[in-house]
């Protein structure tokens, strides 16, 4: 599933190609994804100019000049391709929504498993959108401080891994970047969220920011489905230290001269990867 760095990477190329251009065609090729496509989608958006492209959590928001916003969520396997029209390629499989822009770009939402979502609402009613209403702090915003992180973690005894996955607390983080951040912060993923010391919270906060920024610079992580809007993969997966590396030696331990295999465990039916030596499960 794309996480914040992957969505941000897609957003940046959408911005570069689409901002300031209008839609010359809107094709909806099936009735629904996870939700039905909004009624009147084509009529409402046709010939309207895209004035801004934004991201909130893992949602892409396209603002149009007549006061409507199109929300796109990529779900598990969704991909967005932007093709300059003159490439004239045959359509891909599973192109459920295709937008043509006045500068001859073709934007295709491809989603074989259809866990993605497309919604349309009036921009001024954004705060009432159910998808956006209860979202937590953006980790790359000024509001994401060690104090803010501590304030949300102290309210729950759930594991730190699951607390970081909770989009009502912090948005945009998923399995990959949480495993990587907790490893780098040397915090065991099963520790209770409210058990972190001030120093650990501070370390975790700055490592979350650092890892997201590094991943964005690398164009995100490509494991299965995610690719850039031109079809190219991201590169951050080569910098994963623990994610997907069960049984391989922990790089931090190896650097100190001993070989400790990375372990995998299941938390809320998702795999967590960690080093049992670097990330000690402390006393209560
Ligand atoms: Zn280790």
Structural account:
The mean pLDDT is 94. The chain is an alpha+beta fold and 284 residues long. The strands form three sheets. Strands 1-6-7-5 form a four-stranded antiparallel beta sheet. A four-stranded antiparallel beta sheet has the order 2-3-4-8. Strands 9-10 form a two-stranded antiparallel ribbon. Strand 2 and strand 3 form a beta hairpin. 26% of the residues lie in helices and 21% in strands. The chain has eight helices and ten strands. The protein folds into two domains: 130 residues, N-terminal domain of MutM-like DNA repair proteins, CATH 3.20.190.10; 129 residues, Helicase, Ruva Protein, domain 3, CATH 1.10.8.50. It binds zinc ion (ZN).
- Total DSSP helices: 8
The main β sheet shows up as:
4 strands, antiparallel
| Shape annotation | globular
**Spatial strand arrangement across the major sheet:** 1-6-7-5
Termini separation: 33 Å
Order of helices and strands: HEHEEEEEEEHHHHHHEE
EC number: 3.2.2.23, 4.2.99.18
Active site: 2-3, 58, 270
Keywords: DNA damage, DNA repair, DNA-binding, Glycosidase, Hydrolase, Lyase, Metal-binding, Multifunctional enzyme, Zinc, Zinc-finger
Subunit structure: Monomer.
